[in-house]
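Work package 3, deliverable 3.1, input record:
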Amino acid sequence: MKAGPSRRHRTALAAIAAVAMIVAACGDDDEVAAPDAAGCDGEITQSEIEIWWHEGAESEVLAVQDFVEEFNASQDQVTATLTLVPEADYASSLRGAAASGDLPDVIDTDASFAFNYAWAGDLQPIDTCISDELMDDLLPSIIEQGTYADRIWAVGMFDSGLGMYGVRSVLEEVDARIPEEPEDAWTIDEFDQLLADLREAGYERPLDVKKNYGQGEYYAYLYQPFVWSSGANVIADDFSTTDGHLNSPEAVEALTRFQNWHAEGFVDENEDDAAFVEGRSPLSMVGHWEFNRYRETYGDDLVLMPLPDFGEGTVSGQGSWQWAINAESDADAAWSFIEFTLQPEQMERMAEASGALPARSSVAEGTEKFGPGGPAELFRTQLEEGYTQPRAPHPAYPTISSTFNQAIQEIIDGQDVQTALDNAVETIDSDIEANQGYPPPQ
Amino acid sequence: MRPRTRARRVAMYVLLTALAILFIFPMVFMVAGAFKPDALVLAEGNTIRAFWPTDASFDNFVGAFRRGRFGQLFINSAIISTAVVGLGLVVNSLMGYALARLPFRGSKLLLLAVISLMIIPLEAVAIPLLWMMSLVGLRNTYTVQILPFIANPLFIYLFYTFFLGIPRDLEEAARVDGAGPVTTFLRVSAPLAKPAYATVGILSFLFIWGQLLWPVLVTSGPDVRPLPLGISVFVTQPPISWGQIMAFAFMMTIPLLVLFIVFQRWFVQSVASSGVKG
Amino acid sequence: MSTTDASPGPVATAEHGSDGRPGSSSRRRNLAGVAFTLPGVVLLLLFLAGPFLMALGLSFTSERLASPLPTRFVGLDNYVATFTSASFRKALGNNIWFTAIVVPVQTAMALGLAILVNQRLRGVKVYRAIYFSPVVVVMTVAATVWLLLYSPDRGLLNGILSFISFGTLQSDWLQSETMALPSIMIMSIWQGVGFQMIIILAGLQEISGDLYEAAAIDGATPWQRFSFITIPQLRNPLIFVGTVTMILSFRLFDQVWVMTRGAPLGNTNVMMLEMVNVGFEQQQIARGSAIAVIFFLIVLTLTLIQRRFLKEEVN
């Protein structure tokens, strides 16, 4: 828990402070908050820490609960308590908590969401905490996904990947080429033809894209790679604008192809979350987390392939949930827990639970699943050989994500693709402008 | 308007029953779904068997407690609703009584102010209130979900009109016996105002038990979150289990349903009297 | 509060204070009056009046939730941005469309139901309770259940449609651009009409039986009795129900939050959802406040219209 000696006073001064803010609204005396860049100094000064974890997959929750218990038993300097928040509204829960200064000491955030908090001064950089040994072992993609304004703010226990799962026997039935390496990915023309062939073979809705997940970060995770694969970008490299990137002809072309799958009725509604395992759809485009279930269903008949190539090579998403530390907390206390979860043994257990790729190269290579020749090796090669791209590591990411998701939903619902993307560009750019370009923290 | 012939009466019952089916079928569907296995809720969803709890079990209820945290959310809702209804009855009746019976300088102006405030819905102040509550660090507590709903201009006004309508003689008698304003209120006026208390209690319980918008803004995570937000999160929490969702929905309805069945007459009167004013 | 020191003079003459009791009792009652109102006044100031003024103030600034950037005065920028925003305009349009359909339909249905359950028939009270029962199912629950009923592939409604039309009639309901908002209307009417029915029923029961008897003696047809007695006598309850439904239509939020979050293509977006999205999800407190102010002005207008019509009746 954070020390909050002034809470009662603040309560009493509530209305006054609020009125004062309005009255002095034009006086620019608020300084841009610089994060308390203390970082780790090797000395633990806080004995209790609170941890938030998104309550999604149950196996992951159980693993984290175990970690907390084991951590508390393993030492007597720091006691950790765990709060579970449903994933469905985790992001807005976190946003609200940040607004009222109630963030816990250790937060897990999905990929680039951390950087808005970093920018707002709610987090502290953790590069001073990471040991050289750990730094050398972490996948480059993990470091990349945690870096903003030249500092590392977040680190994950695992990384993620997207793939096209297929039923080998069905694909062979329609004489489809089966690409198992990223460089062999189906071209988009090939893929569209395959959908038509599968329908001909009796699969009315041959493609599952997990429509049951609904609109949310999953859209941003799964569909931004389509844009990247087309050769376009979502936002300029200097993060100043999305105009000419997200609404470029390449992006429009790629997402129009995507829209057609829906217009043609190729996509299963998947309300029962069983389109693939029940055999209705022999293709399922989804992340690493379905690997275990799919493998159980189909055994060796399951084939894992890269996403289709929209013109410039296949691209998968990367990055997943990662730990970050509250700016007001003792970094050493918080890090002691995070470090605990990043040990090879814990990491391996978490990877087992989440089905995800362990964040340490040494651990990842050692697993039967992701290791050389393993059935899910593709996820590791994609990450290691540059077939993935991180979601914009920038404070504007929450806006980019929600706006992009909205645009995708509109495209699914039949909106003109150019219009949807132009609107998205306008929304994102006006957010960047309203935040004065998100001046980086000093 | 009494139907005269037998045929008309039969026709009338047919019409009434047909309408009753329209009103009640979603609830039957909900209850049946709560008891059947997940897969069947969907598989039988578009057949007549949607109304039948095939392979009935309590598994979904267990799931709603375990995955949907029904227990925690229910306790939260119970605490918030009890506090809002209880404190609201006290605060609003005291104020309504004072405005009707204990005039002081400025009380007429105050009454006018209360009437004007009746037109500001919660929604019009939710965003600035969220901002204020964030500044003072009250977000994500029970308090922040209770305090804004205690004083309610509509309820103050309902109490005001009710107290205005009860005869003064009894109060005068008590006063002559030497009772002070507090005693008079507690011993004489408040007991006479039972219908007003019932009305306000039921209306405010209906309102707070279903409140969604404010918890969306001020709660993070299930620790203090109430049921309506809980169910809206549960509906989107993969893996989506419609059986468990229906069990959650059913259990969430039970308290109000029981209240409604037990206090049906009061419910009807409360609703009716909410429309009498104006 | 210093008002307790006020001289008893003006107080005693105010409203009903003709008790003429000696000063000490009067002062005590005075004090009690202030003390009784104090908690309510403080709470109303802190949680209603104060935030309302704050909404006005904030709507002219650049305030954001949790931003390190300084707050600036921006004049009418937030209002301009709101009214030029395509999604706000769509939301406002949807609210108006919703109101235009739901208010007359729901009021007429409530009237019809009230008349039905006002008959002297055995067991009519049971029917009345059944028609009212959806009110007891709070909106979030109702919306959740209907979400499944509306499912295109697995939903009961399409099942029924398909059965009675031999498979020809189907709708995508909430996922259809044209049917999404009507779907929410249907569900809202189902949930809310019982409430209105009870209010109108109370009005019906206050109509004196003599009026009908007199009309019957004059040989009035049922339709004449309905249009010359029932409707005029129900003027106030009907106006009340109509305007309250109007205001509720602008407060529409729960159903949309649970069922669609504004999809498809913003066709079910409404002002309150827009306010939550802008003010909270996008952290733009100032623009959210501007939407709140606009919303208030709409409610204010509707309330004034309501009061005006109700007053005419009194005169």
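The interface with chain A takes residues 46, 50, 54, 57-58, 60-73, 86, 151-154, 175, 177, 261, 263-266, 280-284 of chain C (CB under 8 Å).
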